[in-house]
Structure formats: structure tokens, C-alpha cells
């Protein structure tokens, strides 16, 4: 728990320093430390108790300064410098820098010149056209900010999958400490792996609900308590996310897990099946006409009692899962453990934070068999893309490193920009040296749909067998997908033997579940890739896998579950 709290304080310090336009190295150091603490598998309290400051400093990214700050938090429950820093700015300003189109510099400018310190003030000023006259602003930027506000409002109250996952884990970790809690299961849209989550629905099995309820409403992360009942409670956490808690006895576990997992439509269908048999289904079980419980202790029974095969949570969306289950045709969905490699990642050669060697080492920890290094090409200037000469030198570097690093196979790739006319941002003679190429659109997002579709198809036609990365360019909560005819893209991918990527980054998650299924139907293969820009982001793979599961994909549909030899044979390198 302390790990997450300290990570969140470090992140906030980084944001405040960004507004101040402080030293970028210092800002990065806080961000990196926060990320490392989030993924740390041991408790900071234990680390500190075992070896004091020295032990803290052995954590990657934690130097002398930061170890002192951690010590301060562990001893006093706060970090004074963060409080002091926060006092320099009004509260609302942090909310502003996260609006698409804003950023720390702009937030600072608008605060200084116009006193803007809340979303509402920002919206009024932008609507009144007051922003465009400020230095470095202009009409276009003002319009962008207004669009960003609209986006924020539209995604109102929904959270990214990783954010929801981390917060659910924090609650589970605390409740697990109670001996009265026999089983804890986060349900709802989170368990179904939906790309965004409205609120958390946590189910606990116990015969003694009271201590569980009391602990839940008094957790550190609670901002306010919405309900505090005997078996039901609800809280809002500091980040604005709501969590509902339900406690049921063991004999109701299956029925409750099924009910709270949803989806609502799926639940209604099960109830109708029960009605036809003269039974009743509730979150407490399956009951016959006389009110006797005849099932619902396990989740399997919620299906087997109706002659259905078990339906995994990710498929419970009324997309044909009942027909498939009745026919015994529920697919054997891909699992995280099936993944043998990652085919999209960046290094310090472009905008990554870690070296080739560091990425390889981290991938080895995940027991991967291979990774494809895919740094950017020159057109992607914001990402320090490499020109032809530098790309070529980078390829040599990768191939040399591949010889020296044992235990994992490094593959030489590149994330090649698809230029507006559909041509590729790397000369043919360099493309020839790649093991595998990843293609992506990074510019001119506002093209008309026909043009964008033609642009992408042309690129695939130029380079058959390549991987098309993040096929819609969307950033959840930040940027709309570009207009593109994905059915036509899928058709072309089949024709040119191209692989479509499910980008595992929680802001992307495209291809989406729906189009994964369409791709499979068209015989198109999928790569699930993290697009990692740092070693710890390799762990985002799970979000891509759950999206693929929602798309009914099986192991064989996903190329990075294949052994290296098969990948080489099929992709021809
Ligand atoms: P969310 O939170 O908006 O991302 O989506 P869910 O699916 O987590 O929805 P939520 O939190 O409102 O409810 C959790 C589950 O409880 C939902 O998936 C199914 C079940 N549920 C909620 N309301 C109803 C209802 O009116 N009828 C039935 N049959 N089930 C419901
Ligand atoms: Ca929910
Ligand atoms: Ca709920």
C-alpha cells in the first residue's frame, strides 16, 4: 500500500515540477522512481526495516535523495517538499495539465496571465476566445484545448483499464489481510476486460461481513463513503473512482461472481433461461420452483445447469456467446502465458528510456524467446526518428548485440512511418535488412476516410508480411481514432499477408475486440505488442491479451505465441 501511495506522491511532484519547468532530468527521475515503485514486488516498509536507507537505494531509480523522501513518508506519513510544492499552485491546476492540448507550459501561462486554475475557468476563457491572443497560443491551439475539454467531458467518469486494475489490486491487498475474507474477486467490466471501467465491483466471500465492511470504508485510499451497509458498501477513492463492495456466503459465490461480472445483457439472458425452466436466478444462487437452491456455489454451475459450456468473462457481452456455448464451440482463448515475445518496442536510439541491452534483459525476465526492436524512422520527429543512415547503423548495432546476448533472440526491426501518400519512410535497401517491419501512421491524422484507408493499404501492399501498428491511432481519453475503413484494411491485410497489431498500451488497445474477431474471420493474424518505451512497460502485455480474448482469439491466431522458428518460416526472415 505504501508503495503505491509514495509512487503517486512522486508522480505528483513530477507534475508540479513540470509546471514550474524545472530540470527535466529531475522530473524524469521522479517519474522513473514512481514507475519502479509501482511495479515493486516487495513492501517498502519491509525493505526499509531490513536495511534502512541503504536497502532503499538498491531499488532501481532510487538514489540518496529519494531514499530520504521514502524514509520521511514511512516515518511521518507525508513528504514535506511535496506539500510545499503543492502550496505554490492552486489545487485545480493539476487537473488542467492532463487535458489534451494543454500540458504544463500552457497551464503555467494561463494561470499567470489569466488566473485560470480550474476546468470551468479554462472552458469559459476558451469559449470567449481569450486564449488565442496570448503569446505562443493562437486560434488553432485554442480550438485544440476546447476539443480536449470536450473529450475529457465525454469520457467523464470512466477510467483506463490499468488504472482500474491497479486500484482494484490495492483494495484486494488490504482486504486479504482479514482472516474473515475467504475469497476476494474483482468483478464487473474490469473482469470482462473492457477498455474503460466505470467503477469497481468487488466481491468477498465471508460469513462475517462486518469487519470487512468496516475495513473497506476506512481504507487510506478512501476519499468519501457513499454507503456503509451490512453486506453492501460503496466508496469513492482519491482519484475519483468508485468502488462497490458486496459480501456473500460461500454457497452463493458462483452466482454472485456471475451476477457482478455481467454484462447486464448477459445476466438478463441467463435469467430468461432460468424462467423457461421454472427456476429463478439471483446473486445468491439458482433456485427451483420451491425456492430450494439447486446451484450457484460455483460459477461453472451458472452455465452447466443450463446445458451450456463455461463462458469466460471476456465473452459475456451478448455477442453470440450463448449460441457458441450451447454448441460446445467456445474458443480456447489465448492466455498471457502463451506469449513468447514482443514485436514492438523502443530504445534510447529514439524515444525509449532504456538501452537495447536493458530491454533484452527485462524481456528475458519475462521468459520471452524473442523481441523485435522497432525504433522510429525520421518523419516522426517528436520521437527523434532515425534517418536512413542512422537506421542502418542502428540495425547493425542490434545485430551485433544479438550475437552477444544469450538466452533471448534480438530481432532487428523498425517502426516505419507511413507517409501521407502511402510510401514508406525508409529506403528499400534498408528495409531489406530488417527481420520484420512494423508500419504506422504518425502524422496527418485528419485525412478523409477514403484517403487514409488508401494510404494504409498502399503501405501494406508495398511491404507484404509486415505488421500494421495501432491501426486506428486513437488515444483513449485524449485523441479520437482517425477515420479509416477497417474492414477494407482487414481485407487488404489478408491479401498482402500483413499482421495487424493489438497495441497493449492501455490508452490504445487497438485493434479493438470487435475488429480482432473480424480479422480472425478473414484469416488475418494478430500481433499483441506493448510498444514499450521503457523496460517496465513490457508488463503491459496483459492488457493486450485481455483485449484479444474479448476478440475471441486463440493462441494460434496470435503470431507472438509462435516459437521463433515458426515466426521465421511464416514471415520469411
Ligand atoms: P461499468 O462499471 O460501467 O464499467 O460496467 P459494469 O459492467 O461493471 O456495470 P456496473 O458496475 O453497473 O454493474 C456491475 C455488474 O452488476 C454488471 O456488469 C451486471 C450487474 N448488474 C448491474 N445492474 C444490473 C441490472 O439492473 N440487472 C442485472 N441483471 N444485472 C445488473
Ligand atoms: Ca463496474
Ligand atoms: Ca458498480
Helix-strand blueprint:
Elements: H1 2-19, H2 24-38, H3 44-57, H4 64-76, H5 80-87, H6 93-97, H7 103-114, H8 119-127, H9 139-154, E1 159-160, H10 161-175, E2 183-186, H11 188-192, E3 196-197, E4 199-205, H12 209-217, E5 222-228, E6 232-237, E7 242-248, H13 253-261, H14 264-276, E8 280-282, E9 285-287, E10 293-295, H15 301-304, H16 321-326, E11 341-342, H17 356-365, E12 370-373, H18 388-404, E13 409-417, H19 428-431, E14 436-440, H20 449-462, E15 467-468, H21 486-495, E16 499-503, H22 513-521, E17 526-529, H23 541-550, H24 564-571
Parallel strand pairs: 4-7, 11-12, 12-13, 13-14, 14-15, 15-16, 16-17
Antiparallel strand pairs: 1-3, 2-4, 5-6, 6-7, 8-9, 9-10
Helix pairs in contact: 1-2, 1-7, 3-4, 8-9, 20-21, 22-23
The structure holds 2'-deoxyguanosine-5'-triphosphate and calcium ion (2 copies).
Cofactor: Mg(2+)
Domain Helix-hairpin-helix DNA-binding motif class: 54-73, 94-113, 129-148
InterPro entries: DNA-dir_DNA_pol_X (IPR002054), DNA_pol_B_palm_palm (IPR028207), DNA_pol_lamdba_lyase_dom_sf (IPR027421), DNA_Pol_thumb_sf (IPR037160), DNA_pol_X_beta-like (IPR002008), HHH_MUS81 (IPR010996), Hlx-hairpin-Hlx_DNA-bd_motif (IPR003583), NT_sf (IPR043519)
Describe the overall structure.
There is one protein chain. The protein is α/β, with parallel strands linked by helices and 573 residues long. The protein has 5 domains: 85 residues, Orthogonal Bundle (DNA polymerase, domain 1); 62 residues, 5' to 3' exonuclease, C-terminal subdomain (DNA polymerase, domain 1, Orthogonal Bundle), CATH 1.10.150.20; 90 residues, 2-Layer Sandwich (Beta Polymerase, domain 2), CATH 3.30.460; 74 residues, 2-Layer Sandwich (Beta Polymerase, domain 3); 236 residues, TIM Barrel (Alpha-Beta Barrel). Helices cover 44% and strands 13% of the residues. It has 24 helices and 17 strands. The strands form 4 sheets. The chain has a 7-stranded parallel β-sheet with strand order 11-12-13-14-15-16-17. A 5-stranded mixed β-sheet has the order 2-4-7-6-5, with helices on both faces. A 3-stranded antiparallel β-sheet has the order 8-9-10. Helix 17 links the parallel strand 11 and strand 12. The protein is globular. The protein starts with a helix and ends with a helix. The mean pLDDT is 94. The chain binds 2'-deoxyguanosine-5'-triphosphate and calcium ion (2 copies). The site of one calcium ion (CA) has 5 residues, from helix 11 and strand 4. The site of 2'-deoxyguanosine-5'-triphosphate has 14 residues, from helix 11, strand 4, helix 13 and helix 14. Its cofactor is Mg(2+). One of its GO terms (cellular component) is cytosol. Its EC number is 2.7.7.7, 4.2.99.18. InterPro entries: DNA-dir_DNA_pol_X, DNA_pol_B_palm_palm, DNA_pol_lamdba_lyase_dom_sf, DNA_Pol_thumb_sf, DNA_pol_X_beta-like, HHH_MUS81, Hlx-hairpin-Hlx_DNA-bd_motif, NT_sf.
Amino acid at each position: 500500500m505504501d508503495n503505491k501511495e509514495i509512487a503517486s506522491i512522486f508522480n505528483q511532484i513530477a507534475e508540479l515540477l513540470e509546471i514550474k519547468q524545472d530540470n527535466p532530468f529531475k522530473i524524469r527521475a521522479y517519474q522513473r522512481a514512481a514507475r519502479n515503485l509501482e511495479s515493486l514486488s516487495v513492501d517498502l516498509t519491509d525493505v526499509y526495516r531490513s536495511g534502512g536507507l541503504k536497502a532503499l537505494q538498491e531499488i532501481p531509480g532510487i538514489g540518496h535523495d529519494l531514499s530520504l523522501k521514502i524514509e520521511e513518508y514511512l516515518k511521518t506519513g507525508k513528504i514535506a517538499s511535496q506539500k510545499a510544492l503543492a502550496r505554490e499552485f492552486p489545487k485545480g491546476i493539476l487537473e488542467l495539465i492532463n487535458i489534451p492540448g494543454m500540458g504544463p507550459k500552457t497551464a503555467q501561462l494561463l494561470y499567470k496571465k489569466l488566473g485560470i486554475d480550474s476546468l470551468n475557468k479554462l472552458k469559459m476563457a476558451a469559449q470567449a476566445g481569450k486564449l488565442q491572443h496570448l503569446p505562443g497560443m493562437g486560434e488553432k491551439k485554442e480550438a485544440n484545448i476546447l476539443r480536449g475539454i470536450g473529450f475529457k467531458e465525454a469520457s467523464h467518469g470512466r477510467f483506463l483499464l490499468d488504472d482500474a486494475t491497479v486500484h482494484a489490486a490495492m483494495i484486494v491487498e488490504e482486504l486479504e489481510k482479514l482472516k474473515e475474507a475467504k475469497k476476494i474477486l474483482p468483478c464487473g467490466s474490469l473482469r470482462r476486460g473492457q477498455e474503460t471501467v466505470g467503477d469497481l465491483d468487488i466481491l468477498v466471500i465471508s460469513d462475517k461481513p462486518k469487519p470487512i465492511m468496516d475495513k473497506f470504508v476506512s481504507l487510506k485510499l478512501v476519499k468519501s463513503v457513499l454507503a456503509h451497509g451490512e453486506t453492501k458498501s460503496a466508496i469513492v477513492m482519491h482519484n475519483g473512482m468508485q468502488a462497490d463492495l458486496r459480501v456473500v456466503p460461500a454457497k452463493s459465490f458462483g452466482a454472485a461472481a456471475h451476477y457482478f461480472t455481467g454484462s447486464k445483457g448477459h445476466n438478463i439472458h441467463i435469467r430468461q433461461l432460468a424462467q423457461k425452466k421454472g427456476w429463478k436466478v439471483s446473486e445468491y444462487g439458482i433456485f427451483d420452483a420451491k425456492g430450494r437452491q439447486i446451484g450457484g456455489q460455483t460459477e461453472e454451475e451458472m452455465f452447466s445447469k443450463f446445458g451450456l459450456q463455461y463462458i469466460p468473462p471476456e465473452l459475456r457481452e451478448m455477442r453470440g456467446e450463448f449460441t457458441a456455448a450451447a454448441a460446445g464451440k467456445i474458443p480456447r482463448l489465448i492466455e498471457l502465458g502463451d506469449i513468447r515475445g514482443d514485436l514492438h518496442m523502443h530504445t534510447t536510439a529514439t524515444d525509449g528510456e532504456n538501452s537495447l541491452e536493458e530491454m533484452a534483459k527485462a524481456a528475458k525476465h519475462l521468459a520471452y524467446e524473442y523481441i523485435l526492436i522497432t525504433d522510429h524512422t525520421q518523419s516522426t520527429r517528436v520521437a527523434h526518428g532515425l534517418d536512413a543512415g542512422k537506421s542502418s547503423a542502428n540495425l547493425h548495432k542490434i545485430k551485433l548485440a544479438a550475437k552477444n546476448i544469450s538466452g533471448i533472440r534480438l530481432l532487428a526491426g523498425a517502426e516505419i512511418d507511413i507517409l501521407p501518400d502511402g510510401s514508406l519512410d525508409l529506403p528499400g535497401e534498408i528495409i531489406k535488412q530488417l527481420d520484420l517491419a512494423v508500419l504506422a501512421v504518425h502524422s496527418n491524422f485528419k485525412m478523409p476516410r477514403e484517403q487514409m484507408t488508401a494510404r494504409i493499404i498502399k503501405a501494406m501492399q508495398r511491404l507484404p508480411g509486415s505488421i500494421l501498428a495501432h491501426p486506428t491511432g486513437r488515444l483513449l481519453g485524449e485523441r479520437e481514432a482517425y477515420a479509416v475503413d477497417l474492414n477494407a484494411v482487414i481485407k487488404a491485410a489478408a491479401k498482402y499477408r500483413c499482421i495487424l497489431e493489438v497495441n497493449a498500451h492501455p490508452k490504445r488497445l487497438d485493434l479493438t475486440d470487435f475488429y480482432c474477431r473480424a480479422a480472425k474471420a478473414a484469416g488475418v493474424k494478430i500481433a499483441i505488442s506493448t510498444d514499450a518505451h521503457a523496460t517496465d512497460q513490457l508488463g503491459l502485455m496483459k492488457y493486450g491479451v485481455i483485449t484479444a480474448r474479448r476478440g475471441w482469439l486463440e493462441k494460434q491466431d496470435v503470431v507472438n505465441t509462435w516459437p521463433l522458428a515458426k515466426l521465421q518460416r511464416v514471415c520469411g526472415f
